[in-house]
Amino acid sequence: MMKKNIQILLWVFVIGLVYGQPTTPFQIGEIHKIESKVLNEERVLNVYLPHGYDQKEKYPVIYLLDGSADEDIVHIAGLVQFMGLMYTMPPTIVVGIANVDRKRDFTFKTDVPSLREKYPNTGHSAPFIKFIAEELQPYVRNHFSTNDTTSLIGQSLGGLLASEIVLKNPELFDRYYIVSPSLWWGEESLLKDADNLISQHNYSGKYIHISVGKNEDKIMVREAKALYKKLKPLSKKEVFVGLNVLKGHNHATVLHQAIYDALKLLYVPIA
Q1: How confident is the model at residue 116 (pLDDT cuts 50, 70, 90)?
Q2: Total structural domains within the chain
Q3: Residue 62 lies in a domain
Q4: Does residue 85 register a pLDDT over 60?
Q5: Dihedral (C-alpha) 100, 106, 108, 111: value to the nearest 10 degrees?
Q6: CA-CA to 246 of 20 to 30 Å: which in 10, 43, 203, 256?
Q7: Which position has the higher pLDDT, 18 or 130?
Q8: CA angle 103, 109, 113 (to 5 degrees)
């Protein structure tokens, strides 16, 4: 009995040593905070820096909407890391913009009574876009070693915001990855005004990639195709406009594959 008790105590001691070893957190990036005067609140940035990041080099930047730690930053940064590891895209910085209130920030003002009643705190995309232009992008340029190539990724309401920016402020980014945009917002008013908005801007050199899951609600597929149709004529003016309807994907599964396909299309030559 004594021998058995000693063996148990030894096992407890060994297990304690194993599990009591100091650990080091596994990190994929840095957390930065901005005190935004435009939004009158603190905003958190989750920043992935490529392996071997060197201040002497210059890196392109992907800005990711819905970039909170528990949202899309981990898997999108993983795609960028893997494709960089395989030399299929250049080392790239990913800036995940953590959410405070995505319905507020990603939607424009609407006069639709049902939407105003159901979502009373929406309609503040204009100040959020101003925050991106006047505070976020200058902060990133000042704190990281960047080149002039910038991209924006947005899905769902984030895709709505990305669509609004590409139509109203296309100069803010060079490349747009728009996934399953919620263009139903405001009774499709953004789509209805698209031709007029497009005519006011120069899109030369832009890369605009629109994706949607084939198994999503029919309205999502129809609206993504409609946005593509509005932008497609720009292809004659040194602009890339692409559409990818992903078979077997719905609204919950489409983002990761959509971004992988879009990056591969941009960077990997077709044999």
Answers
A1: confident
A2: 1
A3: yes
A4: yes
A5: -80
A6: 203
A7: 130
A8: 90
Does pLDDT of 161 surpass 80? yes
What are the structure tokens assigned to 219, written together? Answer: 């309205």
List phi, psi (to 5°) of 166. Answer: -65, -25
The CA distances from residue 96 to 45, 120, 155, 165, 230, in Å, are 6, 26, 13, 17, 29
What pLDDT score was predicted for residue 118? 80
* CA-based nearest residue to 132, from 161, 109, 92, 163: 161
> Residue 261 maps to which CATH number?
3.40.50.1820
- Residue 238 pLDDT: 85
- Please tell me the distance from the alpha carbon of residue 149 to that of residue 59, in angstroms, as a whole number: 8
The whole-chain average pLDDT of the chain stands at 91
- Does 11 fall in a domain? no
Quick one: CA torsion of 260, 46, 134, 149, rounded to 10 degrees? Answer: -30
Q: Please, which residues bridge with residue 244 across strands?
A: 211
Bridge partners of 245? 212
Q: Which domain holds residue 215?
A: 26-267
Q: Which residue has the higher pLDDT, 21 or 240?
A: 240
In whole angstroms, give the CA distance from residue 257 to residue 242: 15
Is 192 contained in some domain? Answer: yes
* Chain centroid to CA 170: 16
With beta carbons less than 8 A apart as the criterion, state whether 94 and 60 touch.
Answer: no
Q: Where are the alpha helices (DSSP H) in the chain?
A: 2-19, 73-85, 102-106, 113-118, 125-131, 137-143, 157-168, 185-192, 194-198, 218-231, 254-267
- Which pairs with CB-CB distance under 8 Å and at least 24 residues apart come from 121-128? 125/161, 125/164, 127/38, 127/39, 128/39, 128/161
Q: Is 3 within the bounds of a domain?
A: no
